[in-house]
Write a structure and sequence with these properties.
This protein has about 130 residues and is an all-beta fold. It is built from no helices and eleven strands. The radius of gyration is 13 Å and the shape is globular.
Length: about 130
């Protein structure tokens, strides 16, 4: 089992940047593909980005391509989401998630595929 704790959210003006972190407990972090999702008020949770166990494969939702970057440090048991050129529509609670997989290169893009979730961190982008 793994526990996930997100941090790094906050209030930022449009055009600004934030870096979210998700720290995982345990010694098996590298056994998990990781993902970021977000949920805005009144909307369903949506996929943001995913990264494979090795970090060599990444995948992004179309609206995040070129603005967001997912990365991981397996030595630090942490996955990151660098968010640049933020827009008011990026306002949401951001969640990280872990999917235990055997493949080093697969990424998981649906929330049903993830086994563990963090509590979320609020990101608010003002116009």
């Amino acid at each position: 089992q793994v526990q996930l704790v997100e941090s790094g959210g906050g209030l930022v003006q449009a055009g600004g940047s934030l870096r979210l972190s998700c720290a995982a407990s345990g010694r098996t972090f590298s056994s998990y593909a990781m993902g970021w999702f977000r949920q805005a008020p009144g909307k369903e949770r949506e996929f943001v980005a995913a990264i494979s166990r090795s970090g060599g494969s990444t995948y992004y939702a179309n609206s995040m391509k070129g603005r967001f970057t997912i990365s991981r440090d397996n030595d630090k048991n942490t996955v990151y989401l660098q968010m640049n050129t933020l827009k008011p529509e990026d306002t949401a609670v951001y969640y990280c998630a872990a999917d235990r997989v055997s493949s080093m290169v697969v990424v998981t893009t649906t929330d049903q595929g993830y086994d563990y979730w963090g509590q979320g961190t609020q990101v608010t982008v003002s116009s």
